[in-house]
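step 4 of 6: structure.
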Amino acid sequence: MAAGLATWLPFARAAAVGWLPLAQQPLPPAPGVKASRGDEVLVVNVSGRRFETWKNTLDRYPDTLLGSSEKEFFYDADSGEYFFDRDPDMFRHVLNFYRTGRLHCPRQECIQAFDEELAFYGLVPELVGDCCLEEYRDRKKENAERLAEDEEAEQTGDGPALPAGSSLRQRLWRAFENPHTSTAALVFYYVTGFFIAVSVIANVVETIPCRGSARRSSREQPCGERFPQAFFCMDTACVLIFTGEYLLRLFAAPSRCRFLRSVMSLIDVVAILPYYIGLLVPKNDDVSGAFVTLRVFRVFRIFKFSRHSQGLRILGYTLKSCASELGFLLFSLTMAIIIFATVMFYAEKGTNKTNFTSIPAAFWYTIVTMTTLGYGDMVPSTIAGKIFGSICSLSGVLVIALPVPVIVSNFSRIYHQNQRADKRRAQQKVRLARIRLAKSGTTNAFLQYKQNGGLEDSGSGEEQALCVRNHSAFEQQHHHLLHCLEKTTCHEFTDELTFSEALGAVSLGGRTSRSTSVSSQPTGPGSLLSSCCPRRAKRRAIRLANSTASVSRGSMQELDMLAGLHRSPAPQSRSSLNAKPHDSLDLNCDSRDFVAAIISIPTPPANTPDESQPSSRGGGGRASSTLRNSSLGTPCLFPETVKISSL
Amino acid sequence: MGAVMGTFSSLQTKQRRPSKDKIEDELEMTMVCHRPEGLEQLEAQTNFTKRELQVLYRGFKNECPSGVVNEDTFKQIYAQFFPHGALPCLEGSPCVEFLPSPPLPFCLVDASTYAHYLFNAFDTTQTGSVKFEDFVTALSILLRGTVHEKLRWTFNLYDINKDGYINKEEMMDIVKAIYDMMGKYTYPVLKEDTPRQHVDVFFQKMDKNKDGIVTLDEFLESCQEDDNIMRSLQLFQNVM
């Protein structure tokens, strides 16, 4: 309920006394009234900044966090205040909403951060007041567009995003859309570009008058008629290539209907149809006139260049988005033309041998004058005609100049957006590389830790203490966790270089089905199947002979979940970066060897588990199921088993 | 062509100027503030405690920073309580959240008439604006007053021209205004002569000497005889 209504409700109810004498039926009893304690002041502490307000103010909006009992979760009994660990600057706006009933949008804050605060406090973004609504929507739209562009760029990017099992169709389509992915695609791209140019040049040259070798001074023939065979062959070749390209694209398109309706395919069709129609139509005089006109359409081949040129595409897009301005320009021009043509016609009507024979004839004069061309083929001779002619040319300048800045600014905006998108895509690669470097840094830390012998169970106490002192408790426990994982799966963490080398050396086992759930990157540390745990292999072979498929699958799910954490929409925290090393690992185990039936931890971590395993906070929830091995009835390798829910 | 456009633009500026003046005038008006009398005085004059007065004033001041309510604002506020009696939402009024259903086109509904009568009843000094004192005084009567005071206030409400008598036309207006607040969609369907019937019933009950006019004494007497009315008067004790 809005602030205003809460205040005025008692008055409205009191005014109902006025209906009493008129009431023909007894009025309903009043609702029960809670003991109103009178208004009290609440203290809301947001990251140290204290806000105080009446309880009534917050109660105005009972379906938000502060207005409902949800705020009791944040009540600190010791200090008697409600503590929120959020941005105090943003909270100011939230509290003002309760006070004034209008939600204002801060101009200097990131719109995403503002949205998150709103979501936290239970406010719907629609509550943003009218004064700030436009700007809020614009900024949000801009942000969304930019993010969508990024996502799109990632998807259609030239990363190795194709799954291994993609069909010919998908590969072909990708080659068409991103020519720089493979050399064949690039070659195809340039070849088609070359042939478009050849075709256009041929069309142009066809009409140039050639000086014939035999001095036939009677008539100069255009080249097209002197060498009909040559030009026909060239035309045929081009059309064949274009047809082939079109059919290939049609075949490869993921959605054929959409492809058929797209602008580029229409241009392709228009470019090649005249040739086929020309072939089918017999060469008689009646139809050859129409046939000649059809050849005009061959010039549309030049539009095929828009696939090759981004600037052209931007221009086309700009014109489309400025359709309303262009329409206005056209409309106002038409109006002006008609007015001035009429005026000129009647002004020049009196003179003999005038060019202004009719109003439509005067249209030509008006257009030529308004666009300041002034061919001079039609000139007014009366004084009135000259006066109106000059007014016409002056206003022509104005009318044309008006919509042009709008179109130009649109073009500039779209062009810059595109530039930004390209720049961002280029920077994205650098960003990703840097992130990968940072991530490999953590794996390296772990590898370093291992090398220092920090995980040696049997290491001497002092040595261990020395190594360990340099790392925080968090790091220790994290490394311990990674180590446990290694022991469990009998695979080891390694760095990219070693991995890719090993990958080249060994062929992958046929366990792709299991690897799909982990990550899309080509994994499968085949080389890591190397006998890292030969002794254990034997022992486990016995166990695994009895292991049920469900248990193994369960463990797969466990580890998959751990690995899958990195993909959840967790905030960009260290945990998500740290999660990466997990999924570089692939459970590409042969069933003979290394399936984990238990995830066991020799010594339970001393500190609170949630602090040490931040990677568990990412979406997906905790890996809460326990792994049982007791049903297998085989001797356990490790003395203790701990529920993995501690993670 | 340019001359034509020039004349157009000059015409437009002439039209725009008066409205700009009006906006400036309105701005000036809202600058005028009214401060109520002291808290002690109000406490003495009304039946509210200091705390209650504080709460009331805080709400009032929040809604009307200038300290007075004019009739349009009053109508707008009152209309928000009646979904089918909603006026078209003006800028800034948060009525959208409150209305459970989309408001009907305003040709079908009208809460403004009754709000107008209410406003006149509140505005005892007939100044055209309701100050906080008026507001609180009326509330005090309605919520904490004696039966006698409440009935007198109601009589005052019904007496549109404030001549001390209620005649059938005034009652018709009031009843029609109340039925208008119900809107078009009622069950059972509102018939044309329902208000008239209602008024006839009322006059039959209230008009003792059948002279077509209800005086204050007749009104008080008849109401006090009616048990329903007496009981209902107790309903609004705990509104604050």
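step 5 of 6: annotate
 - DSSP finds twelve helices and four strands in chain B.
 - Chain B has a mean pLDDT of 76.
step 6 of 6: archive
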